[in-house]
Amino acid sequence: MTGVNLFLLVFLLVKCVICLEREMTVNVEARREDCFFQPAKAGDTIDFEYQVIDGGHGDLDITFHLVDPTGRILVADYKKTENNHRVDAAMNGDYKFCFDNSFSSYNTKTVFFEMIVEGDDNSEWDDENIDMLGLRPEDVYEMKVQDIQQVITNVRNHLTKVRHIQDLLKSIEARDRNVIEENFFKVNTFSMVQICTMLVVGCIQVVMVKSLFDDNSKVHKIWKNLNRR
What we know:
Layout: H1 3-15, E1 17-28, E2 33-40, E3 45-54, E4 62-67, E5 73-80, E6 82-88, E7 93-100, E8 109-120, H2 127-133, H3 137-142, H4 145-212, H5 218-228
Antiparallel strand pairs: 1-8, 2-7, 3-6, 3-8, 4-5, 4-7
């Protein structure tokens, strides 16, 4: 068997399994709902994972729901920070994924999500495929097609998991950074308010003490009247 034939064989084995991966980071404005559509076939498996990585100056939460082509809600989350779902497609059509931020009045939410659609294209090892490779039927059986297909599928699954973990770690890092920056903003704001309050109180105390020793001040006159009583 030549190297070209082996390459074509591996290509056809990989083709038996279809895997669509998509990842995005979107901003969902306050009082809005953003939806995305993904076509899928009956029998496909849809993996969906999302995470709110920035909530403006509000909470890290979002409402999510997944709807099938008939409009039936398959999955619904209310004000969650993150979650993942695995759904088997029961029919052909466009599946809708929606992020709802209508409960928020001012804060824009930044959401990272990853979607994986897995399915088979039902490729068969028919005579046309065998002829294209230039192989005899007995050569195909000797190569243990099922074993090769299993190994390739395992490698693909492991690579998908590695990439998924890397994307998840990146989204967690982005979320933690946003949380730290938000806490930094809150600490600075509270510190400025506290400093301004201390300055105002200090100025009032200086004015009040100074007025006690000034015979012409109103504070001094009020203080003398209180002492006479």
